[in-house]
Amino acid sequence: MVKISVYGAKVICASCVGMPSSVETFEWLQAAVGRKYPEHSFQFEYIDIFEEQTEEEKRAFTQRVIDEDLFYPVVLVNTEIVGEGNPRLKDVYEEIDKYLKVT
Fold it and tell me: Where in the sequence is the domain holding 28, given as residue range(s)?
């Protein structure tokens, strides 16, 4: 199963003013991916980078977002970063297609 993770925060990134919030981006991605791939199931997760994480993988990535000043939301398809700040659907779809073998 393809996992789509959105790492973000309640507060909009300082460089991302005027763009959708992290939660709005997460909801938009769920709807868009569901329409594009209605025959497939996906695991979606939203992770707030400023909340304590119990899983080491999430804790390490939230720290990376903060340390490297990545523009959030940061969108991952499985473990690959496909977008920062204002992700493009085309990039998300291209990465999903690699896992679904869509041509």
Answer: 2-100
What is the tally of structural domains in the chain? 1
Q: What is the CATH number of the domain that holds 76?
A: 3.40.30.30
CB 42 within 8 A of CB 83: no
CA-wise closest residue to 33 among 98, 99, 92, 95: 92
- Given strand 80-84, what is the order of strands in its sheet? 42-48, 2-8, 74-77, 80-84
Per-residue pLDDT tens for 56-97? 999 999 999 999 989 889 999 999 999 998 899 999 999 999
CA 61 to CA 39: how far, in whole Å?
30
- Using DSSP's 3-state secondary structure scheme, residue 101 falls into coil
Cβ atoms < 10 Å from Cβ of 75: 26
59 touches 53 (CB < 8 A) = yes
